[in-house]
Each structure stands twice: as structure tokens, then as C-alpha cells.
């Protein structure tokens, strides 16, 4: 009888194990789709980043709506969590708009690298708002990340007034850098809010708030800026649809990766975003990254990977202690 009881348990374990490395493959695929969407955004002419964000939100809503109906989660969520969901939606959509703006006004690789300082800012914000431990290692990784951002931003008082390897004017490069940093801070704040909410709110509901609040915010901003307009040519319209689909695909594969793989390896593998950004920038945008950007990328990747490895090891230790 015991052997019969063990058999289904063994089968369940085998089923759960699945294909080794599949989660990491999904992460790489997600990184590639996000990078491809960024390249298409650079190729679009005369379309404001807010309009691109609005179209992305429409695709998110179309995907999430059937899921909300299927899982019967409702559209507002638990009463005590609605304020957190609102800020998750507001900060998440703000991060998206600012990132798209950064992609439009500065080199793709530079903007992508800056966004990878997010784990460092998350640790800092989690220490302030969630009272999580902030160790000397976290401080070291923060300094690495800040160094990487400085190498990419290349402020004139450190690097002189003639910065090489930037797109357009230095003022645009600086605006893009500020937008990318603000986007990273908003994304880090979103992660802290999601940690606060925990598993009490369904993932689809979290995306729903992000898409709805993002769409409403984008439409108001477009009305105020008087920027809403369809692209002039059919190619740009196709690119807009592809950006929505690729962004959605990237989100789905990243979610799948986190479902079947530990967060630590996924976070480390996500640095492939930077590699793809460098390759696609050279292949499709004919823009060679400078050595300053490469140096900044190495600092930021070391920082984000170090943060991910530390958290992964900490979670493994905790899991072992629970078993004991």
C-alpha cells in the first residue's frame, strides 16, 4: 500500500521537474523579445513614447481580461489592497513611459544598462519601507551601479563638454539618462509594493491595474500634450502592433520562467537583455557602443548579478533552515 501511495508522488515530482533549463530558456527568450521591441521603438518616427505606452497597455488589457473572468478575481481586488494596487499600476506604467522615452532619445544599450540598476534600488527601498536588512554587500553593489550610470551619463564636469558616442545633443542624452533612472526607481518601487501585497492578490489583477491606470494616464497625457496621432506610414503602424505583441510575449515568458525556476538564476539570466541590446544596436541601428558604455555595462551587470546571487543564496539558506 505504501509503494502504491509513493508512485503517484514520484510521478508528481517528475512532472514538476520538467525539462531542465526550460525556465532559463524562457528568460533568454523574454530578454530577446523585450530587446526586439526596443529596437522597433527606435525605428518608429514621430510617435510619442506616451502613445506607444498606451498601445502596449491596450494589448495588456486584452490579454488579462479573459484571465480575470476565468479565475473570477473581480476587477478591483481585496478592499485592503486596492491602494497598493493603484500605486503599483501608477508607478509601473510611469516606469514604462519613462523607459520608452529614454529609448527614443539615447542609445539603446545605454538605456537598457541603466534599467539594470533596478535590483540595487529595490534593496535600498525595501530597507527603507519594508525594514529589510541592508548589508555592506548591498552598499558595495549600489556603488558599482552608481559608477556604471556615471560612465554612461558622462557628466561634462567629469568627462568634459564633448562626450563621444551619444545620439543627438548631450541635453537629450542627459534627459534620457534622467528618464531611465526615474523609470528604474519607479520599477523598483513597484517591486517593493508587490512584496508588500504578497500572494494575497492574483498576478492577473496586478497586471490589470497596471494596464488600466497606464492607459487612462497615457490618454490624459496625450490630450494635454496634444500628441495623439496615427503614424504616417503603414510600416510604423505595423511596428506599433509588433511592440505590443513582443512586450506581451516577453511578459508571458518571464512569468513562465519565474513559475518554474528560482528567482536568483532568472535575475542573473535577465542580464542577457544587455547583451541583446548591444548586438541589436550594432546590427539594426548601426551604432557602435563606446568603451564608456561597455565599462558602465560591466559595473551594472556585476552589481545586479551580485545582488541576485546574494538573495538567491539567502533564500536557499532559509529553505534549508525550515527543513531542519
From TrEMBL:
<dbReference type="GO" id="GO:1990034">
    <property type="term" value="P:calcium ion export across plasma membrane"/>
</dbReference>
<keyword id="KW-0812">Transmembrane</keyword>
<feature type="domain" description="EamA">
    <location>
        <begin position="175"/>
        <end position="304"/>
    </location>
</feature>
<keyword id="KW-1003">Cell membrane</keyword>
<keyword id="KW-0677">Repeat</keyword>
<dbReference type="GO" id="GO:0005886">
    <property type="term" value="C:plasma membrane"/>
</dbReference>
<comment type="subunit">
    <text>Interacts with STIM1; stimulated by depletion of intracellular calcium. Interacts with ORAI1. Interacts with the plasma membrane calcium-transporting ATPases ATP2B1 and ATP2B4. Interacts with ATP1A1, ATP2A2, KPNB1 and XPO1.</text>
</comment>
<feature type="transmembrane region" description="Helical">
    <location>
        <begin position="237"/>
        <end position="255"/>
    </location>
</feature>
<dbReference type="GO" id="GO:0005789">
    <property type="term" value="C:endoplasmic reticulum membrane"/>
</dbReference>
<feature type="transmembrane region" description="Helical">
    <location>
        <begin position="83"/>
        <end position="103"/>
    </location>
</feature>
<feature type="transmembrane region" description="Helical">
    <location>
        <begin position="53"/>
        <end position="71"/>
    </location>
</feature>
<protein>
    <recommendedName>
        <fullName>Solute carrier family 35 member G1</fullName>
    </recommendedName>
</protein>
<feature type="transmembrane region" description="Helical">
    <location>
        <begin position="207"/>
        <end position="225"/>
    </location>
</feature>
<feature type="transmembrane region" description="Helical">
    <location>
        <begin position="109"/>
        <end position="130"/>
    </location>
</feature>
<dbReference type="Pfam" id="PF00892">
    <property type="entry name" value="EamA"/>
</dbReference>
<dbReference type="GO" id="GO:0051480">
    <property type="term" value="P:regulation of cytosolic calcium ion concentration"/>
</dbReference>
<feature type="domain" description="EamA">
    <location>
        <begin position="22"/>
        <end position="153"/>
    </location>
</feature>
<feature type="transmembrane region" description="Helical">
    <location>
        <begin position="177"/>
        <end position="195"/>
    </location>
</feature>
<comment type="function">
    <text>May play a role in intracellular calcium sensing and homeostasis. May act as a negative regulator of plasma membrane calcium-transporting ATPases preventing calcium efflux from the cell.</text>
</comment>
<keyword id="KW-0472">Membrane</keyword>
<keyword id="KW-0256">Endoplasmic reticulum</keyword>
<feature type="transmembrane region" description="Helical">
    <location>
        <begin position="291"/>
        <end position="309"/>
    </location>
</feature>
<comment type="similarity">
    <text>Belongs to the TMEM20 family.</text>
</comment>
<dbReference type="InterPro" id="IPR037185">
    <property type="entry name" value="EmrE-like"/>
</dbReference>
<feature type="transmembrane region" description="Helical">
    <location>
        <begin position="137"/>
        <end position="157"/>
    </location>
</feature>
<feature type="transmembrane region" description="Helical">
    <location>
        <begin position="21"/>
        <end position="41"/>
    </location>
</feature>
<feature type="transmembrane region" description="Helical">
    <location>
        <begin position="267"/>
        <end position="285"/>
    </location>
</feature>
<dbReference type="InterPro" id="IPR000620">
    <property type="entry name" value="EamA_dom"/>
</dbReference>
<keyword id="KW-1133">Transmembrane helix</keyword>
Amino acid at each position: 500500500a505504501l509503494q502504491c501511495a509513493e508512485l503517484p508522488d514520484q510521478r508528481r515530482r517528475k512532472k514538476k521537474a520538467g525539462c531542465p533549463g526550460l525556465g532559463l530558456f524562457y528568460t533568454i527568450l523574454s530578454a530577446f523579445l523585450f530587446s526586439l521591441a526596443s529596437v522597433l521603438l527606435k525605428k518608429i518616427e514621430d510617435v510619442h513614447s506616451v502613445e506607444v505606452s498606451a498601445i502596449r497597455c491596450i494589448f495588456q488589457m486584452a490579454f488579462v481580461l479573459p484571465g480575470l473572468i476565468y479565475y473570477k478575481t473581480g476587477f478591483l481586488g481585496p478592499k485592503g489592497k486596492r491602494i497598493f494596487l493603484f500605486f503599483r499600476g501608477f508607478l509601473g506604467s510611469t516606469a514604462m513611459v519613462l523607459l520608452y522615452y529614454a529609448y527614443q532619445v539615447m542609445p539603446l544599450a545605454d538605456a537598457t544598462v541603466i534599467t539594470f540598476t533596478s535590483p540595487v534600488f529595490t534593496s535600498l527601498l525595501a530597507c527603507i519601507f519594508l525594514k529589510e536588512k541592508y548589508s555592506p554587500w548591498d552598499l558595495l553593489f549600489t556603488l558599482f551601479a552608481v559608477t556604471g550610470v556615471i560612465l554612461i551619463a558622462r557628466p561634462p564636469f567629469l568627462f568634459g563638454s564633448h562626450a563621444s558616442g551619444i545620439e543627438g545633443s548631450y541635453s537629450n542624452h542627459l534627459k534620457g539618462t534622467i528618464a531611465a533612472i526615474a523609470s528604474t526607481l519607479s520599477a523598483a518601487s513597484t517591486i517593493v509594493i508587490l512584496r508588500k501585497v504578497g500572494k494575497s492578490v492574483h498576478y492577473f489583477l496586478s497586471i490589470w491595474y497596471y494596464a488600466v491606470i497606464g492607459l487612462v494616464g497615457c490618454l490624459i497625457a496625450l490630450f494635454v500634450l496634444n500628441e495623439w496621432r496615427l503614424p504616417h506610414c503603414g510600416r510604423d503602424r505595423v511596428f506599433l502592433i509588433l511592440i505590443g505583441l513582443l512586450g506581451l510575449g516577453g511578459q508571458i515568458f518571464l512569468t513562465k520562467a519565474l513559475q518554474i525556476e528560482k528567482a536568483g538564476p532568472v535575475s542573473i539570466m535577465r542580464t542577457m537583455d544587455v547583451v541583446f541590446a548591444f548586438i541589436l544596436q550594432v546590427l539594426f541601428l548601426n551604432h557602435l557602443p563606446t568603451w564608456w558604455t561597455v565599462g558602465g555595462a560591466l559595473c551594472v551587470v556585476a552589481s545586479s548579478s551580485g545582488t541576485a546571487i546574494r538573495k538567491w543564496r539567502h533564500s536557499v539558506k532559509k529553505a534549508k533552515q525550515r527543513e531542519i
